[in-house]
Amino acid sequence: MNAYEQKVYEELNVWRRNVLKKSGLFKQLSKKTQTKINGWIPEKAHNIITESIKNMVKATLVGSDMTTKKQQPTGQTLYEKDELLKEKLISYRKSAVIEGAGTGAGGFFLGLADFPMLLSIKMKFLFETAAIYGFDTRQYQERLFILHVFQLAFSSDAKRKETFYTLENWEYEKEKLADMDWRTFQQEYRDYIDLVKLLQLVPGFGAIVGAYANHNLLDTLGETAMNAYRLRLLTTQPREY
């Protein structure tokens, strides 16, 4: 392990502690409220929402794969991979901010369009991240890894701990995974972003909220993705295809 990798290893230990620590009181109360609200929603409605988000994510995965470069050339150091990812994050974050401000300024109906558009930006970013760190997204298990990184970034305390364990032990855990738990996936994501995205629908206020929210959401995803792949690279090397 060289000096930079040792530095990254120390950063990963700090990140791990942050991921596993308990959320603040506000987030805990928000989660409890949203869980209660989810209990009031009819099962049929939950099934419709779950299928809608499942289909949206799967369509985004296919589209992202088609528009993303495959694995980066071999021979790059971890430092070079990290720096390239940081450059990509700036670009994707800029797109998300512009998109959030635009849809937020458009009122209620245009604000609703932010959900699939932002989801597409996030998925494309994750595909780029996988390529930068040398993993082949044509492989089904690599797409599952991407979905788990996404879930780690946008989930409650309990699910975040469970997902972190899965990613930290990916080489073993991936053999037990057949597919995502789509019901949990969509509920965790919705609960994470519901409050701030509802504010985005307020006329005259939505543009500011949309830009700020999307900036922070991409930052959260960027930090999570970079550290998830760093962790994986420092414990195992990707196969060559």
Automatic annotation (TrEMBL):
Name recorded for this polypeptide: EcsC protein family protein
Query: Which species is this record about?
Result: Lentibacillus halodurans
Instruction: List the taxonomic lineage.
Output: Bacteria, Bacillati, Bacillota, Bacilli, Bacillales
